[in-house]
Amino acid sequence: MTTSSFRNNTASSKVIKSHLLGCDFNPPLEEYVENIDRYIEKIINNAERFELWDDEKLIGFLACYANNLKTKEAFITMISVLPEARGRGIATKLLGNAREHCKNEGFKALYLEVRVDNMGALRLYHRLGYLEQKREDKVAVMKLELSNWAGKI
Predict the structure, then answer these.
(1) In this structure, what CATH number is given to the domain that contains residue 130?
(2) Percent above pLDDT 70 for the chain
(3) Is pLDDT above 90 for 147?
């Protein structure tokens, strides 16, 4: 039996890379991340990281840049769940943890980008209160207003 636990900012770059390479992104991660090692280094240095672990295996990961103190807008740069762990509400829980963190830190809005052909993710984000702001090519920019958010996950 595994023990699941949420942690923040604990995964090493090696663990994050192994996790991301284990996720079956569509399109593949290397098509939109030029250098995965630099991307992970940027996340570790600049993002809040929300993690779900089964024992010592990272199964869910969300990285959020909550560092724009001028606009008080945060941006989710990555959310990923290993294929074998999908369907357990992990993405919903990670999004909730990021939302609560950003709200508690005084942020007004939380943004993310999603491919418009990722229907499952679009449904999830809409259900959680994210509203589409614009579309650019194959990507939708979505926003969750935190100042008046009073919903439940």
Answers:
(1) 3.40.630.30
(2) 95
(3) no
- Contact (CB, 8 A) for 103 and 92: no
Does residue 91 sit within a domain?
yes
Cα separation, 101 vs 104, in Å, equals 5
* Collapsed DSSP state (helix, strand, coil) of residue 7: strand
- Cα separation values, 33 from 2, 4, 25, 137, Å: 32, 29, 11, 17
d(CA 95, CA 133): 18
Q: Which residue has the tokens 């939109």?
A: 32
Is pLDDT above 50 for 26?
yes
SS3 call for 16: helix
The predicted model scores a pTM of 0.93
pLDDT given at position 153: 46
DSSP-assigned states of every residue in 72-121: TEEEEEEEEE-GGGTTSSHHHHHHHHHHHHHHHTT--EEEEEEETT-HHH
Range of the domain at 42: 4-145
Please name which of 131, 28, 18, 132 lies closest in space to residue 82, comparing C-alpha atoms.
18
For the stretch 27-36, pLDDT in tens is: 888 888 999 9
